Amino acid sequence: MKSYRKELWYEIPQRRQLINITPEIQKCLAESDIREGLCLVNAMHISASVFINDDESGLHHDFEVWLEKLAPEKPYSQYRHNGYEDNADAHLKRTIMGREVLVAVSAGKLDFGPWEQIFYGEFDGMRRKRVLVKIIGE
Amino acid sequence: MKSYRKELWYEIPQRRQLINITPEIQKCLAESDIREGLCLVNAMHISASVFINDDESGLHHDFEVWLEKLAPEKPYSQYRHNGYEDNADAHLKRTIMGREVLVAVSAGKLDFGPWEQIFYGEFDGMRRKRVLVKIIGE
Amino acid sequence: MKSYRKELWYEIPQRRQLINITPEIQKCLAESDIREGLCLVNAMHISASVFINDDESGLHHDFEVWLEKLAPEKPYSQYRHNGYEDNADAHLKRTIMGREVLVAVSAGKLDFGPWEQIFYGEFDGMRRKRVLVKIIGE
Question: Whole-model pTM above 0.95?
Answer without folding.
Answer: yes
